Amino acid sequence: MKIATYNVNGVNGRLPVLLRWLAEARPDVVCLQELKAPQEKFPEKAIRDLGYDVIWHGQKSWNGVAMLSRVGEIHETRRGLPGDPDASQSRYIEAAVNGVLIGGLYLPNGNPRPGPKFEYKLRWFDKLIEHAAELLESGVPVMLAGDFNVMPTERDVYKPERWLDDALFAPEVRAAFSRLTDQGWTDALRAMHPDETIYTFWDYFRNAYRRDAGLRIDHLLLSPTLADRLVDAQVDRHVRGWEKTSDHAPVWVELGDKPKRKRAARPTKQPG
């Protein structure tokens, strides 16, 4: 099963790009962020015409998340993060699809730092960590997918020295991401590319995409049972080069139907 996350940066304005990518990549399940559309303005018909079931949580002008599936019905389990400090913001949607529970999220940006937006980001992150722990305790296969607005390490940001005061690279935010993954989540993209410089976002300014001056802020986190099924994880970075595209590229994982076989330990050679 191929599961993707994609911050579309305006689902209606970027609809041709989204539909082109869906037709090309044919992901089984997709989490979208930054719809920037109220509930009644979501382009449901265009997406269903491609063979996808879809649910969405819209908001006028800002935020907004959705989930698409072409491998079975989407069974929504939650809309909004439990204990969200500002429930008026559409940032979280959760559903079971084809045997996997998926939380699609758009974590607050948090700039400027310091300030109320940064404090909201930290509070939202704390609530996500609490909910993520409960999801792991459930024992079901779970994935958290979306735009986390955090670069976990210096390897995940072009020229990290320029980002020291930014909310996406703040020590408190990176520490929160570590607290989250330390629960037992696997960062799928980094697991498949442990030593590579790999980005998911390139700003529109200063020719960032062509210079590869990017950030890795879109993540797919897998519970232990899903991590055992991880086959591949990639960024469709060429999509960022399309005309009128988002400043993010789609990120996806491929999961096998069964856990990968682990090599049996070699028997210890006995002296003699």
Describe the structure.
This is Exodeoxyribonuclease III. Keywords: Hydrolase, Magnesium, Metal-binding. Pfam families: Exo_endo_phos (PF03372). This protein is of the alpha+beta class. It has one domain: Endonuclease/exonuclease/phosphatase (Deoxyribonuclease I, Chain A). It has helices spanning 15-25, 44-48, 116-138, 171-181, 188-192, 208-211, 224-227, and strands at residues 2-7, 29-33, 53-57, 65-69, 75-79, 92-97, 100-106, 142-147, 186-187, 201-202, 214-215, 218-222, 230-235, 251-255. The protein is globular and about 45 Å long.
Can you describe this structure in just a few lines?
This protein has 272 residues and is α+β, with helices and mostly antiparallel strands. The chain has seven helices and 14 strands.
The CATH first-level class comes to Alpha Beta
Order of strands across the widest beta sheet? 3-4-2-1-14-13
Gyration radius over CA = 19 Å
The best one-word shape is globular
Return residue spans where pLDDT drops below 50 for at least 5 consecutive residues.
263-272
Helix content: 10-25%
The CATH architecture designation is 4-Layer Sandwich
Strand content: 15-25%
Structural class: alpha+beta
For the largest beta-sheet, the strand count, sense and barrel status come to: 6 strands, mixed
Overall pLDDT confidence: 95
Report how far the terminal alpha carbons are from each other: 50 Å
What's the SSE pattern? EHEHEEEEEHEHEHEHEEHEE
Keywords: Hydrolase, Magnesium, Metal-binding
Family: Belongs to the DNA repair enzymes AP/ExoA family.
Domain Endonuclease/exonuclease/phosphatase: 4-248
InterPro entries: AP_endonuc_1, AP_endonuclease_F1_BS, Endo/exonu/phosph_ase_sf, Endo/exonuclease/phosphatase, ExoIII-like
